[in-house]
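thread from #wetlab-drylab

HS: before we spend reagent money on co-crystallization trials with protoporphyrin IX containing FE, can we at least see a predicted complex? here's what I'd submit
DV: go for it
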Amino acid sequence: MAASPDISRRRFLAASGAAAGAAGIVGAGFGLGRTGSAAASGLRGSEPFYGLHQAGIATAQQDRLFFAAFDLITPRRADVARLLAEWTAAAARMTDGLELTDGVDSAAAPPADTGEAVGLDPAHLTVTFGFGPGLFEKAGADRYGLVARRPPALADLPAFPGDKLDPAFSGGDLCVQACSNDPQVAYHAIRNLARIARGVAVLRWTQQGFGRTSSTTSGQATPRNLMGFKDGTNNLRTDLAGFDQHVWVPQDDGPAWMVGGSYLVARRIRMHIEVWDRSSLLDQEQTIGRTKAEGAPLGAARERDPIDLEARNADGPVIPVDAHVRLANQEANNIHILRRGYSFTDGIKPATGQLDAGLFFLAYQRDPRRQFVPLQQRLATDKLNEYIQHVGSALFAIPPGSHRPGDPIGGALFA
Ligand code: HEM
């Protein structure tokens, strides 16, 4: 099934009228006529690729995730720079709902695009790239002459109490976060980027997410996580104060090549679902510190009511001392992060028959040393720890966006 320009995805969509709301985007090409956030309220449509920041952070959170961590296998710096340029160009096209090339595939070679997204709306696909510590330094070696450019904020995460990290879900020299409202579109993006990387980088681990566990704009309703609780109520939001201050790397922080970027902490957090499901509603609500049905802080009536950490009743604090929302409270700690995680379920643990499911925690921030690390240390006494275990961990520097075609992600790092 060789693709020809006549059945290219762009024309297929336009001809079929498959996406009336997205028709203007589908035919638009680079740099033109994107509706971006205007279409963000619907499941269909496309997000802008080019900008000061990479898409997929401030973007209204999509419903599906496919995340991949890669290990670099090339000894040559030029290979890495070329891969990033190719990835950037491919991601820009896929974000627009285009196949990887407009050309006609030869019948004698594998098609340039794997094809499973032909005819599908991009459904707000965003592709976000990150650099792990291993890009700068691996096993003490300065593989690509970049060690001096490693940002101090990309310091290896310390060990946290209770961690049971599996290398099979941890680390990575590069990462790609693909988010879309269509899981097949997100899958297609990662698969094609992995294909482009052949000989330069190999997949280390991947994670699918099937339901968002945060809201990132005020317009989005708060979703529920696999514990059945509303998750993302008190999150940084694109349209509210504090977002810029806590998420993006400012000039003063440096290094220059990271200005406008962010840092991503990914944690694969298993939930002991069977244990949780045997605990009482009272115990569940005291663990989180909010009501299950409404999501209101304990002692309050509505989801958006303020959290009163001082309130007491005859038994002591209304919000228990070990409740998750007390320990994670952003105002009291003055630690704010952008949570952008997803629920996952990956079959069962053969040894126990228990579900291997939980929260794939993704948090964006300006400096993990001042945000995720102290916050996670505070959570050492969290009652939630009876029901969860961190089994995977990774940290990435997320460089700023590509400004225009021909400007690769990470270009300033390799310049
Ligand atoms: C499986 C693990 C986790 C579950 C099930 C979970 C669940 C929740 C829930 C239900 C809320 C209340 C609603 C909301 O404001 O979003 C919440 C709040 C929050 N969580 Fe988690 N969480 C988990 C892990 C973490 C981790 C690892 C961190 C950071 C290190 C974190 C940081 C926060 C923060 C900052 C808040 C908002 C606190 C506030 O200011 O009110 N959570 N979480």
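DV: DSSP finds twelve helices and twelve strands in the chain.
HS: ok that's useful, forwarding to the group
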